[in-house]
Amino acid sequence: MQALLSGQGLVKSFGRLRAVDGVDIAVHPGEALGIVGPNGAGKTTLFGALAGAFPLSAGTIRLDGAAITALPAARRCALGIARTHQIPRPFLGLSVFENVQVAARAGGALDADASVGTAAGILSRTGLHDLANRPAGALGLLDRKRLELARALATQPRVLLLDEIGGGLTEAELEQLVALILGLKAQGLTIVWIEHILHALLQVIDRLVCMAQGRVLAEGAPQTVMADAQVRAAYLGSDPE
Amino acid sequence: MTEPHLLPMPKGDRRLILSAGALLILLALLPLVAPAQAIDKLTQLGIYVLLAVMWNLLAGYAGLVSVGQQAFVGLGGYAMVRLVEAGLGPFPALVLAPFLVALVAWPLAWFVLRLRLGEFAIAMWVIAEVFRGLVMFDPLVQGETGTSVLALNAIDADTRRLAIYLLSLVAASAALAGSFVLLRGRLGAEAQAIRDDEEAAASVGVSTFRVKRLIFVAAAAGCALAGTLWLASAITFQPRTGFGIQWTVFMLFMVLTGGLGTFLGPVVGAVLLMGLQEAFGDFGAWYLFGVGALSVAFALALPGGLVGLWSARRGREPLSMRRRLSAGEG
């Protein structure tokens, strides 16, 4: 089966630091792929590279087999790649609704009328409906995280890149989030999820990648990867139990 | 429950627009009764409103803080001089010149819009100085001396005054109405998204360069129109005045005191500037110094300007660009 989104030989250097250092990665249609790894492993940089936030130092990114390495972020979004940011980046001067609507119109190519209904639906689904007309700048962290997700969904993605969307949530909020992401997966959305909260991640993903120092350390079935001695040393930093 | 929809414009805003329409008709009829001096002042006010709306569009809604918009004010005047020299009537030249300036701004956007924040601001200033220097090389302009659009003198003074007044009225209203429609549409939301976080805007599919370029070129043409209107009333074009930094000082003052990123801010600021000019204009350099100091004071103490103050008291910005969804509180 052809990968929906893939990267071959991805390298991103910042000066002498190779934040991403020769990564091969692929996610297949309908699949949920998890990414774990210690801080500084290059996970967020990898997302930036896939989404086109900056040019790569080397490597090729493909969507449906076609190279998209040279396309700017906005074009990739229009083709169906959406991401959330680890630290939420709402448009502070716009309302919650406007944040989502602008994404629906720009990335999702919806017309004015369709974007209103779509944005309203997504706001309900992400629990932001009652805050629709609030300025995004007035939101707390949890609601900003919800807004990140809502805005990404509004672009009508084919593949959703989630960057530590579960961090800082309570157990109950996490449960809601997992249910929401499972719902998206059931609808056929392809998901790549960077997350430190393993028990949440493991409820969703089909396959797991562990990164360390800009490279892929292990890849495969979640339980196999988590049992890998190298992974345990690099990521958990100690022996199991 | 009904389908989610956008709430209609608040009644207060609709009343405001109707009153503005009525005011416009009154202003158009004013020359029938008002003395020539008052008409000249209102012409100047129209030009100020036009300039302030353009700077607010750039800085307030798209985050493009330019301290070199005088590049386009001066270029507009110069283009008009050249068009008249080429045989065009002064009024067709006045209208056509801003389009020529837009043609210059279009490729320029490709260079300057790659720069961020302070770099962009300073680059614009440098470009204004470069334009001034180049224009001074034109034998027609003769360096600092400048040149006059003598064809304007061929027109009867009253007719000329009336024509320039009406043109300035039309230009200011069109700038307000045009930016209102533009900002309430998709482009306005995209521009504000870019202003708030350019990288995040790109990540949700906003073609950031295209949006910024459109606003940059529109603002260039608007400033050029202010330049040609100014030249039509002043008759003489001098590079030092046409490309003078005072244009940017005025634009900054009007937008900062009126309310950066508020729709009515530029209008309020323009009226305030006119008032100050009437009261203190004779103080020359000290007057300009005061205008600058007041801009800084507003930026520090009252960043929302006078309209921000008004909005805070009413709990809502008059003629806000905000689109509100039917359901949900707040």
From TrEMBL, chain A:
InterPro entries under this entry?
AAA+_ATPase (IPR003593), ABC_AA/LPS_Transport (IPR051120), ABC_transporter-like_ATP-bd (IPR003439), BCA_ABC_TP_C (IPR032823), P-loop_NTPase (IPR027417)
UniProt GO cellular component terms: plasma membrane
Q: Give any single GO term for biological process.
A: L-isoleucine import across plasma membrane
ABC transporter domain: from which residue to which, for each copy?
A: 5-238
Keywords, alphabetical: ATP-binding, Nucleotide-binding, Transport
Which positions are tagged coiled coil? none
Q: What is this protein called?
A: ABC transporter ATP-binding protein
**Mind giving the lineage of the organism this protein is from?**
Bacteria, Pseudomonadati, Pseudomonadota, Alphaproteobacteria, Rhodobacterales
UniProtKB/TrEMBL annotation, chain B:
Keyword set includes DNA-binding: no
User: Which molecular-function annotations from GO does this UniProt entry contain?
Assistant: branched-chain amino acid transmembrane transporter activity
TM spans, by residue? 48-67, 88-108, 120-141, 162-183, 214-237, 249-274, 286-312
Superkingdom classification of source: Bacteria
Q: Record's Pfam families?
A: BPD_transp_2
Tell me how this protein sits in the membrane. Answer: Multi-pass membrane protein
Annotated keywords: Cell membrane, Membrane, Transmembrane, Transmembrane helix
**Main localization (coarse):** membrane
The keyword Cell membrane appears for this protein: yes
What's in the GO CC field?
A: plasma membrane
Q: Where in the cell is it found?
A: Cell membrane
The cross-references to PANTHER family, in alphabetical order and at most eight, read:
ABC TRANSPORTER ATP-BINDING PROTEIN, HIGH-AFFINITY BRANCHED-CHAIN AMINO ACID TRANSPORT SYSTEM PERMEASE
Q: Could you tell me what this protein is called? A: Branched-chain amino acid ABC transporter permease
Q: Which organism is it from?
A: Pararhodobacter marinus
